[in-house]
User: Fold this.
Amino acid sequence: MKIATFNINGIKARAQALLDWLDEAEADVVLLQEIKSVDENFPREMIEDKGYNVETHGQKGFNGVAILSKLPLEDVSRGLPGDDDDEQARWIEATVVGDRAVRVCGLYLPNGNPAPGPKYDYKLAWMERLKARAADLLAAEEPALMAGDYNVIPQPEDAKHPDRWTEDALFLPETRAAFRRILNLGYTEAFRARVQSPGHYSFWDYQAGAWQNDDGIRIDHLLLTPQAADLMTGCGIDKHVRDREKPSDHVPVWITLEA
DNA sequence: ATGGTCGTGGGACGA
Assistant:
């Protein structure tokens, strides 16, 4: 089973790029972030025509997440638990029924800039709620993963120029510590578990020639429970997608599971 | 320090 996460930065502008990538990647499950669409306007038919089941959790203008799956999806749940007043569409989860059942959670963690400030407070509070959900998932002792745009640069090795990010909400010590606390519950960060070398990124800003200079950061992650990590057979970043026409500023990150 | 570029929706805001 191949599972990918992809922040597409707007489904309307990215429709063709997404379809092209779906054709080549042949992922069984895709977790999308920043669809920037309400559910009614999401172009589900074009994706269903490629054999995917489609579950969305959209919002007007911003945010929005979705799950695409060639396998059946069960027990779909929308919204990160822990704050009934939070109306931002940043979380969706479902059970994928393959040879084994895998609980997949798609997330779009708040950016948090500028920090300090209310947006950063929201980010840290959201990460605390994420940790609570992560702990509950672990307690089930089943294959499960939480994947998406974490807006967290875990280590200096995950940025071309870490010195330029020291004041940024994606790299502040408090952000990285909150991310580590989630990992330390018992999660495996798929890519870093398999690749130790620096210089692998999943996001390049549209501005200032970031892509041309390979001035990237690695902020899209897949976190696996021990039962999922035991099934992992591969992991990769589809960097070449960033060089295409009308690209997202993120590229897909994926794993393969023996499931 | 500033401005640099996108997407959505059709203005301002988020990233």
In short: Helices of chain A lie at 11-25, 44-48, 118-139, 173-183, 190-194, 226-229. The CA atoms of residues 147 and 222 of chain A lie 4 Å apart. Chain A is about 25% helix and 25% strand. The radius of gyration of chain A is 17 Å.
